[in-house]
Design goal:
Blueprint: H1 3-50, E1 57-59, E2 69-75, E3 80-84, E4 94-99, E5 105-112, H2 126-129, H3 155-175
Antiparallel strand pairs: 1-2, 2-3, 3-4, 4-5
Length: about 180
């Protein structure tokens, strides 16, 4: 085999790879801003769901995040939206908790999880997450002496959601002025 038989196919492969890379780069550049805008809309809609009395939210980037808290947002009504990621059965259970200025949960949503379909995944259903609205102080499942009825056969997930809600309540009590 001579050098020409190797160089020509290698050159073609290089050219095809360069064109494909350029196309992928262009698509990434074109879609980056629409994806960012859509993610922002989704985040704002989720925050509005857990704190319906607020109309705008500002991320607090200069606050200390303890435990599994991933972000804290100040609402224009004096409340807070806190996101947490406590460990569940299948991994992190991403939770968003709205807490008003008095330290009461205004809403809770599980925004992401890797829990078992049909069991832990039920944490995203209103029958479960609506139990948290109006709660303050200590939030635990009934098996642990609390008021939250756990998902049948999914106590670990239920405890994880309670843990995330409790971390949010504790953060607001310590940092947000709620007593």
């Amino acid at each position: 085999m001579n050098a020409k038989e190797i160089i020509k196919p290698a050159g073609m492969l290089l050219l095809i790879s360069a064109v494909a890379a350029a196309c992928l780069g262009a698509v990434s550049e074109i879609t980056a801003e629409p994806i960012r805008i859509q993610n922002e809309k989704t985040l704002n809609a989720s925050m509005q769901a857990v704190m319906p009395d607020a109309s705008s939210f500002e991320e607090l980037t200069d606050v200390e995040k303890t435990g599994t808290i991933t972000a804290v947002y100040q609402a224009d009504n004096g409340g807070f939206v806190v996101t947490t990621a406590p460990g569940g059965f299948g991994g992190a259970v991403n939770t968003m908790v709205g807490i008003d200025a008095e330290g009461t949960i205004t809403g809770l949503r599980v925004t992401g999880h890797s829990e078992t379909p049909g069991l832990g995944a039920k944490s995203t259903e209103p029958d479960f997450y609506e139990q948290f609205t109006g709660k303050s102080g200590t939030v635990t499942v009934t098996k642990d002496g609390g008021e939250i009825v756990p998902i049948t056969s999914s106590t670990i997930t239920s405890r994880a959601v309670c843990s995330g809600a409790q971390e949010a309540l504790d953060w607001v009590a310590a940092n947000g002025g709620a007593n």
